[in-house]
Amino acid sequence: MLTAHRLSRLPRHFLTGEELSRDEIEYLLNRATELKRDPHASRALAGQTVALIFEHPSTRTRVSFEVGVFEMGGQPMILRPGEMQISRGEAIRDVATVLSRHVAAIGLRTGDEQMLQDLARYATVPVINMLSPLHHPCQVLADLLTIKEAFGEVSGRCLTYVGDGNNVARSLAVVGARAGVDVRIASPDGYALQEDHGATLFADPVAAVAGADAVYTDVWLSMGDDESTASRRREALSPFRLDDELLDRAAPNAIALHCLPAHPGDEISEEVLYGRRERIWDQAENRRHAQKALLELLVS
Ligand code: CP
Known about the structure:
Blueprint: H1 4-7, H2 22-37, E1 49-54, H3 60-71, E2 75-79, H4 92-100, E3 105-109, H5 113-122, E4 127-129, H6 137-151, E5 158-162, H7 167-178, E6 182-186, E7 200-202, H8 205-209, E8 214-217, H9 230-237, H10 244-247, E9 255-258, H11 270-273, H12 280-299
Parallel strand pairs: 1-2, 1-3, 3-4, 5-6, 5-8, 6-7, 8-9
Helix pairs in contact: 2-6, 2-12, 3-12, 4-5, 6-7, 6-12
The structure holds phosphoric acid mono(formamide)ester.
Phosphoric acid mono(formamide)ester binds near residues 60, 139 and 260.
């Protein structure tokens, strides 16, 4: 267990998840569990504002951050680049500098990895990646919390992701491996991660799922992907659909995960999405609890 003194040395930004050590992830998951039990237990943002910049649509990330900041005594401020001077060419450096004079932290969802890097480079308050082309680390904190709830701990558990090697798959590999999870990523040729990031890469979904404690999938066409590739993607990714038959190959008490939004019949069957083995709706709720623990850690 970490002490408050040790936490004070934590890097301020949360861009990929590599900023957290295994001890820090363990601390964060324990704190998230406490905050789930008692949602108003933290006043770490009392009287402060958190800017949340959304370049792309969101349901879970927006709601969980907005409600979470409010529960911590703070005010969330939703900003859309189209309504900011960014849309007229203002430099991210200048936006970072100005926002840092007003708010306690800045969240950014963007389709431009460089924008995230530039914001973090020039902001003097913590910057949190709320989804970028390469990473979705906040999602994985919630995923780990869901695994902890199901199995008591995350270290030593096996999580298999089946499908497109996208930002969620990369973050599961990066953050999951740091947390001591045996992460396996199964993707078809042409859709695999270019690096393993600490995970084991598979081309065969059945082999990857064997004995897994959690089986996870995500959309086949992510925000920013070329819509005209949808039918080609569906054809390549169909053997990786998370359905009962595939889930039966996992451990007897395996759970099904999906970061949502879901497309039943594509990457997941309706039976799994709403079935007895899903923990998907807990996972969606856990976004708030995990992010509150993260915010507390970053602004303290
Ligand atoms: N999982 C996730 O990030 O959901 P939203 O796109 O709705 O925020």
